[in-house]
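step=encode ok
step=design start
structure_in=
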């Protein structure tokens, strides 16, 4: 049996220790640990990488602290439109949804698209209709509401700006009640299969049906047993233009470099040149994990069967 491993993230951005209260830091760490534990338990019981990322993401989507599922940010129109994707590195199957409303776990819907729709990517009303048809668990708007996100949006709604849920002006003011973070997971199971998933409410005050990198296969989410599984977080537009997740895979495949080196090139060189603030987590089919970011912080955690375990928030 080979090394198995999982990594998760809960968003990247201007996350500073000086802005954090001990209680809030504890709550984030617990949120990350709960999700890590849920995903790792699947791998420990010989479960698949795809089921491990699924289990981890559900815990993060259900946690109000993170910008995915419950607790998603508000759009310009004052509603929550969520994006999610999942990809299986064993067979390159993928499913994603964008601009969906009321699905309790948008990642669940993305998986349904992957397994049962004959399509890869559904959006907006069509995706919502598909959720109803497939019996995906729905929740009323109030379920997704959080006061912090609402206040964050109120600060911006009269402007044309949009922002990463954790990078904006007046941070000190708004950070009193900090709650943010797109979520993602990557895993390698004991058979050497890998998978990735990402889920997000996107960026505060987004409009015109804006879709970020998270649900775009190759940009924010990608998995291929030959190379790596990647989940990104950060300012989606540069990540889309950089085709960031797939670029890591290409660097590994064509240049024959390691996951660590390929991610370094994309996160610390290419994305920096494009002002692409954020980071990503990755795993290869040997169970090697890398978690890299060019922002002040990234909520992150990893665990593998060799006994390594790490939970972090800031640069250290
Ligand atoms: N990448 C996400 C987006 O642009 C946001 C995030 O990662 O926080 O929609």
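sequence_out=
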């Amino acid at each position: 049996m080979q090394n198995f491993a999982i990594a998760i993230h809960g968003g990247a951005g201007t996350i500073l220790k000086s802005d954090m209260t001990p209680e809030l830091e504890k709550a984030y760490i617990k949120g990350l640990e709960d999700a890590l534990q849920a995903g790792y338990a699947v791998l420990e019981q010989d479960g698949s990488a795809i089921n491990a990322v699924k289990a981890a993401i559900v815990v993060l989507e259900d946690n109000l602290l993170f910008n995915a599922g419950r607790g998603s940010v508000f759009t310009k129109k004052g509603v929550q439109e969520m994006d999610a994707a999942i990809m299986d590195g064993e067979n390159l199957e993928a499913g994603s949804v964008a601009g969906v409303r009321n699905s309790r776990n948008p990642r669940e819907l993305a998986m349904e698209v992957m397994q049962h729709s004959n399509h890869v990517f559904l959006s907006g009303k069509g995706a919502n209709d598909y959720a109803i048809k497939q019996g995906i668990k729905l929740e009323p708007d109030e379920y997704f509401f959080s006061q912090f996100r609402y206040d964050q949006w109120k600060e911006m709604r009269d402007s044309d700006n949009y922002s990463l849920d954790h990078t904006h002006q007046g941070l000190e003011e708004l950070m009193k009640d900090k709650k943010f973070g797109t979520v993602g997971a990557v895993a390698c199971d004991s058979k050497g299969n890998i998978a990735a998933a990402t889920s997000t409410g996107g960026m505060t005050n987004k409009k015109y049906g804006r879709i970020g990198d998270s649900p775009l296969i190759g940009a924010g989410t990608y998995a291929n047993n030959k190379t790596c599984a990647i989940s990104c977080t950060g300012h989606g537009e540069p990540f889309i233009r950089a085709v960031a997740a797939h670029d890591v895979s290409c660097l590994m495949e064509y240049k024959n470099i390691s996951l660590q080196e390929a991610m370094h090139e994309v996160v610390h060189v290419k994305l920096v040149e494009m002002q692409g603030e954020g980071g990503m987590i990755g795993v290869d089919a040997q169970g090697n994990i890398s978690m890299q970011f060019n922002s002040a912080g990234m909520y992150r955690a990893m665990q593998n069967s060799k006994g390594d375990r790490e939970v972090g928030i800031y640069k250290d």
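step=design ok
step=annotate ok -> The radius of gyration is 17 Å.
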